[in-house]
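Pipeline run #58 for the internal structure catalog. This entry was flagged by the ingest filter as a single-chain record with no existing model, so it goes straight to prediction. Upstream metadata was stripped on purpose; only the residue string is passed forward. Reviewer on rotation: M.T. Logging verbosity set to normal.
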Amino acid sequence: MNAPHTPAPTTEDAPLPVEALGPRIPLHAPEFAADPHRAYNNMRARYGSLVPVELAPGVSATLVINFHTAVRILNDPYHFPADPRTWQRTMPPGLDMMPMVEWRPNALRSDGAEHARYRSATVNALADLNLHAVRATVEPIAIPLINAFCEDGSADVIAQYILPLVFSSINHMLGCPAHIGERVAAASAAMFEGVDTDTVNTMLNEALLELSLLKRRSPDDDITTRLVRDPAALSDEEMIHQLVTHYSAGVEIPQNLIANTLLLMLTDQRFALGGTAFPPSTSTAIDEILAKDPPLANYCLSYPRQPVVVDKVWLPAHQPVIISMAACNNDPEMNDGQYLRNGWNLAWSAGPHSCPMQARAASLLIVQEAIDLLLDALPEIRLAVPAEELVWRPGPFHRALAALPVTFPPSPPLNIG
């Protein structure tokens, strides 16, 4: 696919460098995390489709907020490759956000033949994932978690329910024993919270190498075993970095999607029981959040091979171009407020680096089961604080609540089995 470009400019219509559009917007600021949609609307009015931003103090990038522009870029890996190594060499050591964006030998950060090799291994490992077994896995994890707080009448459902449920589900799919999973959980949380690169990578590498070696010695019916047995013949180092992707995407995205969907269902009167009409289904709420407030809001980074004109703006070579799935999904050219199940939105990205279909299906099963089990067990659950008092975790990439405190009538524990 050809690179997005404009016709040769006339004197009065010459492209501007992205730096000339206006001051950079700090995506790392708490103010952005508190109200990103207001920020996206202001960006659209002031800058158009491309916005100069900062991912961290002093780290420049361009944010894409137009749906069609984003799709063109995502489908043009030749001009917009995902390999960050040239840019990465210009960054100061120890940058807190680096574990989220640095080069790794995996599909997310590779291009060409290497991308095809890693992507094939990942897709093959997911292909034999039994979605019925995934669904059946969630309930035995969820019920003990609910029973641990159901008699209290209150809980932070992110810390006490959502995160441990999602992580335990992913551990099960990957065949990761609990003693290794606990170390991966600590490292994954540190990655999204911007703990320094060396600490995060050491924590992850040690735990995931141990998991890979375990599956080479004792194979089983799980994703990790299928990865080590794949014809791609992944080395131990490559295995670590395939598993980093499985854990980072497999935990953070469903965790945020569950929390954001629950918040919608607890605050929007359309989902309240007791009216004259049936409330919309959980799957409808999930679809709305994927379109309106996706759990990974800004990501899908690429690094132009050379200066390139996009929408009459010069983008510099090797500087990050980041797609705002949240802003693009709410682009007025695309979204009239109807959140339909037609796959049009960018919550799962697009192009050769998009989320594999089987991973999407497994994530959605975990999310829907987690929500339905909680609401069935505690149907009178309510927010414990006004929605406007909830705190959103700062950071340029995710749309993530720091906590989701709820109240409910104390309830007896559920029967297991």
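catalog note: The mean pLDDT is 91.
catalog note: The CA atoms of residues 170 and 250 lie 7 Å apart.
status: ready for reviewer M.T.
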